[in-house]
Amino acid sequence: MSDSNFADNQEYIQMTNFCSINICGMSSRSQFALDHYCDQKDLDIIAVQETESTSLEKLNLSNMAVITDENMAANKGAALYVRNYMGATPLPEIAQLCTNLDSAWAMVSVKSTRVIVGSIYVKLKFNNAIQDTLRMLNFALQKSKDLKAKGVILMGDFNARSHVWGDTIENKYGKDLFHNLKLEDFSIVHSEQPTFFSPNGSSKIDFMIVSNNLVDHLEELQTDNSAILFSGAPIMGHVPIHNKLDLKLPKPTAALVTKYDVQSVDWIKWGESVDQKIIECSSFVDLLAIEQWDIISNAFNNATLQHCAKKTSTVHSKPYWTHQLTLASIQLRNAMKSYQKRNTSDTRKTLEEAKDMFENLRKEEFQSFILKRTENLNTAQTQKFWKQI
Prior knowledge:
With 389 residues, this protein is α+β, with helices and mostly antiparallel strands. It has eleven helices and 17 strands. The chain has a six-stranded mixed β-sheet with strand order 3-4-2-1-15-13, with no helix packed on it. It has a six-stranded mixed β-sheet with strand order 5-6-7-8-12-9. It has a three-stranded antiparallel β-sheet with strand order 11-10-14, with no helix packed on it.
């Protein structure tokens, strides 16, 4: 691993792909289509509404953890899917605040960042629908502070129509949401395109409600009219909505130390440079010992500057690391990512091969380093060396 990597790019971008879809009943056909769609679109987190089931057999997707609603889909159901490698902690206490709306909540860990994410279906003809939705949202926001999460994202089918987010008409849910949502805490992130189609016209009832500290990290919400998920769309039904969360986080850094790379020295040229400097001093033999040492010391320094390259290292640097190990570690990371996204026998085989190759090469380089460092050491020096290792 090149030590200079620690100094490059003081920020790295951490992308998370979100999707929400009202599936209008999770059948074996729509389950298969959604599984394929997740892999095709490289989705990390999916909110699904109107599952009409809490059966894991019907709801399971490959390489995804699923969190279901707390009401046994009594109000048509909701589920939240998170990639296995991201880590998701269910938060049932949020959903349990309302028995008349189905929602699923979890705290999702994206590397070092925590975000509370929810999926909700707001059924029609329920007077307190928006009040209960906001009660859960406000509780989730307080929960995010308690759990030191970055913020809150709620996705779903809200059945709320308003001119504010570009719908053609307004209904009670839309008015209640606009007038009661705490704008100092939350924002509505909506699509420019309709999210629901029917013979009577289209609407924008699927969107995201996001805590304000995350809004600037989101892109514009997009719809996917070409998706075939057997939800009825685009003739009649919902289309998936997509967004990406861009978190710019400080890159982990370690203190850099500049050192001479002794292995880069051409010792013959180094010695010739030292000799040349001493020869240039015609009165060298007539000088005092301390003056002679100053000349020799300067000759050493000049020769080293000329013939010895410098390198940077940190507390994480391994003295035996080589360029071949860097290439092998990159190959191993890529194989691990492929396996996490698609758990197949081929990706598993590739991962195992990459692990074996990296580990064997690491052992070889380490053994070679040890032999070179200890071949000319006496017993006392060898004992001291192994203590340091």
